[in-house]
Design brief:
The chain has about 475 residues and is an alpha/beta fold. The protein is built from 13 helices and 26 strands. About 30% of the residues lie in helices and about 25% in strands.
C-alpha cells in the first residue's frame, strides 16, 4: 500500500468524516483528498516527475499535511523542512536532497509551489517505493537523510494504531513537528484508522493547547519529556480532560519520576512508554498495565517485528526498517546488515539495552553518550534518573567533557522547577547519597533553560559545547 492510499481509502469509505482540524480550519477526508489532488496537479505542472524530491517548507498546519499528500499523489518524494530553521541547515537539506521544487508560503502567507534555480535531478537514486526523506536532527553531526518507503510508513501506521487501539472515534492532538517520524506518524496512524487529527503549531502555550484538548474532546495525546515538564507545571485541576484515553511518550526516555507524576495527574488515561529511532520509526512500547510495575522499561517489540540484544546493543528486524541513508552507502552499511538465514534486513541501533526475564526492554543509553571516568563506564541516563527524583528539579541532562585526570568529567545541567531555588550543592549531596563516588557529577550547572533540538530532545551536544567553551574562557 502507498501512503497516499491511507487518505484516498478514507475519502471513499468515510468521505464526510472529519479528518483534520487546524485553528479555524476543518477538513473532511473527502475535502482533504481533493485539496491534495490539486497540489499534485500543481506539482506536475511545475515539472515534478516520479521519484523527484519536493521540499515542504511549512510549519505544522493543514497546508503542510495537504502538501505532503499532494507530493505523494504526484509519485514524488517529500521531506519537511522547518521554515524557521537556520539558513545553513535549510540550505544543506535542499542541496543534499537535490530537490527541484519547494512548497512554501509567499509574502501574504499563502502556500505556493515554485521551481528552484537548480534543475531537477533524475539520478536514479530515488526508486518507485521511496516515499519520504526524514533528516535526523543533526545533534551528533551533519544531518542524514533517512530513506523511508511507502511500505515502511504504512506498516508502522498499521502496527502502531493496532497496539494503541486507534479507531475512527479517536481524536488525536499533535504538536510534534511533521519533519520527524513521531510527528509524521500521528498523521499516518490517524488516517489509517479514520480518526480525526487536531494539529497545533507547538506546545509553547500549554494552557491554550489544554483548552483545545477539552474543546475538541481529544482522546490521544503524544508527548516528549520536555512537554511532560510543561504539562506537569500546569494547574491540571482547571483542565479536566474526561475524554483523554491515552498518552504516548517517545523521542527520548521519560524519567521514572515524571512517569509517576503523569500517572497520578491522569489516572483515567493509559500511558504508553515507547522507544524508536528515525531509522525505523518505532521499535517498542510498554503495555499500560505494566507501567506502574516497570516504569523504567520501554516494553516489547511493536506488532509484526522482533528485537534482540547482542553484546549490549539493540538489534531490530521488521518491515519498518529504512531503505538506508540517502546517497551514503558506506554509512548505511554500518547500521544495516542482511540476516544470512532469513534474508531479513537487520538494523543495528547503536543503543545500549538490557532485557529482563519477562523479555521487557530497558534503554540504558546511546553508545556514543557513555562517559568513561577513570576506566569506569557510566550511563548518563542512570544519573539523570537519580537527579530527577530530587524535588525542585524540572529537567536534567548529564554528559561528559574532557578531563586531564579522569578521561571524562561528569557534568549535570539542571533546570529548576518553577519557584524552586535548588542549588548545585543540594544536587551534589543528593548524588553523593545515591550514587557510587565515581558517578557523582564533578560539575553541577544550574540553568534557566536547557537547549533542545527540533524534536524536543534536550541536546547533550549543545550543553557539552557550552560547558567546554566556558571552561576555555575561564582558563
Amino acid at each position: 500500500m502507498r501512503v497516499n492510499e491511507l487518505l484516498e481509502a478514507r475519502a471513499v469509505d468515510m468521505p464526510r468524516k472529519e479528518a483534520l482540524v487546524y485553528a479555524a480550519e476543518r477538513f473532511t477526508y473527502a475535502q482533504l483528498d481533493e485539496a491534495a489532488g490539486r497540489v499534485a496537479h500543481l506539482l506536475r505542472e511545475a515539472g515534478v516527475r516520479s521519484g523527484d524530491r519536493v521540499a515542504v517548507s511549512l510549519e505544522n498546519s493543514a497546508d503542510a499535511v495537504i502538501a505532503i499528500f499532494g507530493v505523494l499523489k504526484a509519485n514524488a518524494v517529500f521531506f519537511v523542512v522547518n521554515p524557521h530553521a537556520r539558513p545553513e541547515y535549510r540550505n544543506h537539506l535542499m542541496s543534499d536532497s537535490g530537490a527541484g521544487v519547494i512548497v512554501a508560503r509567499n509574502s501574504s502567507g499563502k502556500p505556493f509551489v515554485t521551481r528552484l534555480t537548480n534543475p531537477l535531478r533524475h539520478d536514479g537514486s530515488a526508486d518507485a517505493d521511496l516515499a519520504a526523506l526524514v533528516y535526523t536532527s543533526g545533534s551528533t553531526g551533519t544531518p542524514k537523510g533517512v530513506m523511508l518507503s511507502h511500505r515502511n510508513l504504512t506498516f508502522a501506521a498499521q502496527s502502531i494504531s493496532s497496539y494503541l487501539h486507534i479507531t475512527a472515534g479517536d481524536v488525536i492532538l499533535s504538536v510534534l513537528p511533521l519533519s520527524f517520524t513521531y510527528g509524521l506518524g500521528q498523521v499516518t496512524t490517524a488516517f489509517q484508522a479514520g480518526a480525526t487529527l487536531v494539529l497545533e503549531p507547538s506546545f509553547t502555550y500549554a494552557r491554550a493547547v489544554l483548552d483545545t484538548m477539552r474543546r475538541e474532546r481529544v482522546t490521544g495525546f503524544p508527548i516528549v519529556p520536555t512537554m511532560a515538564t510543561l504539562l506537569l507545571q500546569q494547574d491540571l485541576r482547571m483542565h479536566r480532560l474526561p475524554h483523554l484515553r491515552y498518552i504516548t511518550n517517545a523521542a527520548a526516555a521519560l524519567p521514572v519520576a515524571k512517569t509517576r507524576k503523569l500517572r497520578a495527574a491522569f489516572p483515567h488515561a493509559q500511558l504508553f512508554l515507547m522507544y524508536g529511532q528515525t531509522e525505523c520509526q518505532r521499535v517498542s512500547y510498554l503495555p499500560p498495565e505494566l507501567v506502574d510495575e516497570h516504569p523504567d522499561s520501554v516494553g516489547l517489540p511493536i506488532p509484526g517485528t522482533s528485537t534482540e540484544v547482542v553484546e549490549g546493543e539493540l538489534i531490530v528486524r521488521g518491515p519498518h526498517i529504512m531503505k538506508g541513508y540517502w546517497k551514503d552507502q558506506a554509512l548505511t552499511a554500518t547500521v544495516l546488515s542482511r540476516d544470512l538465514l532469513t534474508g531479513e534486513t537487520v538494523l543495528h541501533t547503536g543503543d545500549l539495552f538490557r532485557t529482563d526475564r519477562n523479555g521487557l526492554l530497558y534503554f540504558i543509553d546511546r553508545r556514543d553518550d557513555i562517559i568513561k571516568v577513570r576506566g569506569e563506564k557510566v550511563a548518563p541516563r542512570y544519573i539523570e534518573e537519580i537527579i530527577a527524583e530530587l524535588r525542585g528539579v524540572a529537567e536534567v541532562a548529564v554528559y561528559g567533557v574532557p578531563d586531564d585526570l579522569s578521561g571524562d568529567a561528569i557534568v549535570a545541567s539542571v533546570k529548576p522547577a518553577d519557584g524552586s531555588a535548588i542549588t548545585a550543592e543540594e544536587v551534589r549531596r543528593h548524588c553523593l547519597a545515591r550514587l557510587e563516588p565515581f558517578m557523582v557529577p564533578k560539575i553541577v550547572d544550574i540553568r534557566s533553560t536547557l537547549p533542545t533540538i527540533a524534536n524536543g530532545k534536550v541536546s547533550r551536544t549543545a550543553l557539552r559545547l557550552l560547558t567546554m567553551r566556558r571552561g576555555e574562557s575561564a582558563a
